[in-house]
Design brief:
Elements (H helix, E strand, L loop, with lengths): L10 E4 L5 H12 L3 E6 L3 H12 L5 E5 L5 H15 L4 E4 L14 H23 L8 E6 L12 H20 L4 E8 L10 H8 L10 H13 L7 E4 L15
Parallel strand pairs: 1-2, 1-4, 2-3, 4-5, 5-6, 6-7
Length: about 260
């Protein structure tokens, strides 16, 4: 039986697609034959570099700037994507910020900003691009969450709360947009050290996971591509963390 969804000649939006894991996902989709829209906020130069590399794979590519902390800019991004592509069949909600916050010092503004970026923006983008598929056209949504959504990340409380919300939204959207659109999540563990955190400490934490190894960007990309291509998988989360979410090791409890 032929697959219902063929990545070739589809159009994908990758938020945060100019740098880090987002850029790797955008590149992988281009290699598979998808046209790619790179969203960025402040990474204008990397976005331009990404476009040149993506077009080198023989696909169409464009980049649009939007501050996803602003709901109006989320809606404008949807309009820009549809004006350029006509329709978008793949959405990867990858844009993220890993700011520190503790329960004792948590401020309402921290919670609001994290919820907007990590939960509401993915909802607005997905709803705008996938809420009404044309003529039952199939679509794919992959939300990037965090392997530690089920734990208490005491140094990243607002971030943790918002990623938990995105996990719940993944299931809600999977039901809401079925049967034409699948909505799944990928939960990376220790892949790329956050800015300001040393690679050695990152590796030490990764060795506490059951598989005693840190993940690689390619591992995350493979999980995303699987979910994009899968015809009968929705509302699921793939943890790419060496099993750390199953135990008390890794980054659990310290965020």
């Amino acid at each position: 039986m032929a697959p219902r969804f063929d990545v070739r000649n589809k159009t994908a939006l990758v938020t945060g697609g100019a740098t880090r894991i987002g850029r790797a996902i955008a590149t992988a989709l281009a290699k598979e034959g998808a046209n790619v829209i790179v969203h960025y906020n402040t990474s204008a130069a990397p976005a331009e570099q990404a476009l040149a590399a993506l077009e080198g794979h023989g696909v169409r590519a464009n980049a649009f700037q939007a501050d996803l902390l602003e709901p109006a800019q989320c809606e404008h991004l949807v309009e820009e994507c549809l004006a350029w592509a006509g329709s978008v069949q793949i959405v990867v909600n990858s844009a993220s910020s890993f700011g520190k916050s503790s329960l004792a010092e948590l401020e309402a503004a921290d919670v609001a900003a994290n919820m907007q970026l990590h939960a509401l923006a993915p909802l607005l983008l997905t709803r705008g691009l996938m809420g009404k598929p044309a003529d039952g056209e199939p679509g794919r949504v992959v939300n990037m969450i965090d392997a530690y959504v089920h734990t208490y990340q005491r140094t990243h409380v607002a971030y943790n709360l918002s990623k938990r919300s995105l996990l719940d939204l993944t299931g809600m959207m999977a039901l809401e947009f079925a049967p034409d659109v699948t909505v799944n999540a990928v939960a990376p563990g220790l892949i790329i050290p956050p800015e300001g955190e040393g690679a050695d400490r990152h590796a030490d934490l990764a060795r506490k996971a059951p598989l005693a190894d840190r993940g690689r960007v390619a591992d995350v990309v493979d999980a995303v591509l699987y979910l994009v291509k899968a015809d009968l998988v929705t509302g699921q989360t793939i943890y790419v963390d060496g099993g750390a979410h199953l135990s008390a090791g890794g980054r659990m409890g310290e965020g």
